[in-house]
Amino acid sequence: MRGQPGRSVTSRVLALLDAFSPASPALTLSELARRAGLPLSTVHRRAAELLAWGALERGVDGRYRIGLRLWEVGSLAPRGLGLREVALPVMEDLYEVTHENVQLAVRQDLELVFIERIAGRHAVPVLTRVGGRFALHATGVGLVLLAHAPVGVQERVLAAPLERYTDLTVTDPGRLRRCLAEVRRVGYAVSDRQVTLDALSVAAPIRAPEGVVAALSLVVAHDRADPVALAPLVQAAGRVLSRALGGAHR
Amino acid sequence: MRGQPGRSVTSRVLALLDAFSPASPALTLSELARRAGLPLSTVHRRAAELLAWGALERGVDGRYRIGLRLWEVGSLAPRGLGLREVALPVMEDLYEVTHENVQLAVRQDLELVFIERIAGRHAVPVLTRVGGRFALHATGVGLVLLAHAPVGVQERVLAAPLERYTDLTVTDPGRLRRCLAEVRRVGYAVSDRQVTLDALSVAAPIRAPEGVVAALSLVVAHDRADPVALAPLVQAAGRVLSRALGGAHR
DNA sequence: ACGGGGGCTTTCACTGAGTGGAAGCTGGGG
DNA sequence: CCCCAGCTTCCACTCAGTGAAAGCCCCCGT
Question: Residues in domain HTH iclR-type (chains A, B) (predicted)?
Answer without folding.
Answer: 7-68
